[in-house]
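Entry 0007
Protein: GNAT family N-acetyltransferase
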Amino acid sequence: MSIKENPSDIQIEQIPYYLSWQIRKIVFDPNPIDYKIDDDENGVHFGLYIGKNLIGVVSWFIEKDGAEFKKLGILNEFQGKGFGKMLLTHCIDYFKSQGIKTFRCESNKNSIGFYENLGFKKTNPTEAFHCYACIAMELSIKV
Ligand SMILES: CC(C)(COP(=O)(O)OP(=O)(O)OC[C@H]1O[C@@H](n2cnc3c(N)ncnc32)[C@H](O)[C@@H]1OP(=O)(O)O)[C@@H](O)C(=O)NCCC(=O)NCCS
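Output (structure tokens):
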């Protein structure tokens, strides 16, 4: 795939859950057990577009005391260029504007540094409930 990266071409918007599947299938696994989330229909899904091309997604689930995101994924060829941080920061700013102050995720071992870079900390205990061999992480916004 060849996509010219031009900052004015980059857009982040809410997308229907089934569009997130097209990225999850590539970044995670083409097996529906892996690319679908049981609760997808109740999530809030964001996509990052370069021009008309969807290159990254993340899915949010609102809880009583915060919001959890799952399946943050950027297509391989666009990783390491700031798009993951841009997408996540955009969502956190959006949910902050809705009054949400606590953001959670379950990180795989490779992504812990990415989340720490954004201010997330490992929770204590670090046990993750939805993701095998993952570490629970949290970002709390102080008022
Ligand atoms: C994890 C992922 C979403 C990160 O997105 P990305 O676009 O590659 O990351 P970015 O380029 O936005 O990185 C932002 C910052 O985090 C740092 N960073 C990225 N990955 C890192 C890592 N694994 N460890 C430490 N720091 C990392 C970058 O150096 C950058 O630092 P800077 O802002 O100081 O320059 C992406 O690599 C991905 O989709 N991976 C495969 C799917 C996956 O594992 N998802 C996470 C599920 S828990």
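Curator remark: The two ends are 43 Å apart (CA to CA). The CA atoms of residues 112 and 135 lie 8 Å apart.
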